[in-house]
Amino acid sequence: MLLTIDRFFVATAVHSTLKIYSLEETLIEEFYKKYDSSISALYATNDFLLVGLFNGQVFLLHYKDKTEHLLVKHDSKVTCFSNNGNFYYIGFEEGIIVVLYINTSTIQQSDLSSSVFYDESSVSEVFSSNDLAINFSMNKKNFTQIASRFNL
Question: Which domain of life does the UniProt lineage start with (predicted)?
Answer without folding.
Answer: Eukaryota
